[in-house]
Amino acid sequence: MTIARRHATEQTSPLTTEGCAEIHDLHRVRSDVPFVVGLCILSSVYILLIAGMLVADLSFTTPANFLAALRSEEIRYAIRLSLISCSITALLSLWIAVPIGYLMSRYSFRGKAALDAILDIPIVLPPLVIGLSLLILFRTHAGQLIERFVPMTYAVPGIILAQWMVACAFAVRTMRTTFDQISPRQEQVALTLGCSQSQAFWQIVLPQARRGILAAGTLAWARAMGEFGPILIFSGATRMRTEVMPTSVFLELSVGNIEAAVAVSLLMVVAAVFVLLLVRFFGRTAALEANRI
Amino acid sequence: MIALENVTVRAGAFHLSGISLEVPTRSYGVLMGRTACGKTTLLETICGLKAARAGRIILDGRDATHLRAAERGIGYVPQDGALFSTMTVRRHLSFALEIRQAPLESVKTRVAELARLLGIEGILDRKPPGLSGGEQQRVALGRALSARPRILCLDEPLGCLDEDTHDEVCELLKRVCREVEVTTLHVTHSMNEARKLADCIFRIENGVLARVTN
After folding, report:
1. Closest partner CB to A191 (pick from B70, B85, B147)
2. What is the ipTM of this complex?
């Protein structure tokens, strides 16, 4: 077929497949190898950096240093306080995150966007600012009144409050994503079957949110474990009193005891990896979505 | 009987007004119309899941316009079945009765009766993720009928079934609705389904609802 005739055919019948064979013959697809290799190189830079940090930590300390740090009364106190405060923080976070997550997922109301932004403030605010803000809050009349019943500033309850301020925001995000992923249709069916909204929530929604709740709890626990800035400002760094694991790292470093600081850091790495594995085990994208913020 | 008197419904920018309809007691009504013409919104308004902006909804002679969904006595089967993913089929059939705190023996009897009626005796201890499309629709129907509602609302219950299963569930619907003597309103866009099942057909077109045929 001449070019002129082919043109004429295309003009009269644009859907014809005539001439396509020639186009397909000329079309050569580039190799995918450079693309995949590029992805691998860029990814490996970050992964190697993470692995390198951990290996450097491990090579810096010896089992003897590690055991010596664990024998220290102060560090044992810090580990105990960290474990207790983080567990309480995780429970308190869930207590608040489940209702807020459900409310934000299921209801539309005036000012919802503003409320959503407020809930993100603890995530985006610098940790030191959170600590300072708490300190100022507890200097007001309302704060002083609370202090009369529960001592907060430079006390253990203050550690839990400082951890909770940040950890709860992550738990709220996780729970909201979890509830977003559960179709409201099932609740609607439950309502037609005779349920009140609260019965539908407890019997239909909550059992389905089980994995999300576990993910939110572990995420809150992990965030609380790593919290340092707000605790330092709001609760201080008094040994055997308001010392949690990140505070121990800071105090050991400040007196030049790097081996002990690394040993405590490694303990925190082990705890973080354990929590990460738990979150992975509970699966679901809920926690990952929250981490994307 | 299902009766709508000059009902107005709104969902976002979507709006239907002056809708009137009557499905006589124990009849099988089919509501047809194009996609996004408001069939599902209207069905949800009848079920009490959306509020009517104006007009009256009469169910079995009782003004149900302002009743909550739980108080309307309607069995509802949504398009995707919306089975409770953490519950067994047995629990689906007993759920509405447990909510009403029915005696254990009568719950067991009702579950057995429904399982026999719908041919799902063999899957009572299974959970929704392992069920076929036809089985899921049977379970959704059983769950909707468990508390012996006098009205049944079906939202495209056969929409996502293959051809063989479609015909099978269609026959089942026809038989079950006759046997349990329930007034039914079935939403679909399939004329084929309407011909097989309907005692009366309604169509929404350009925001106007009209009775097509007896």
Report:
1. B70
2. 0.93
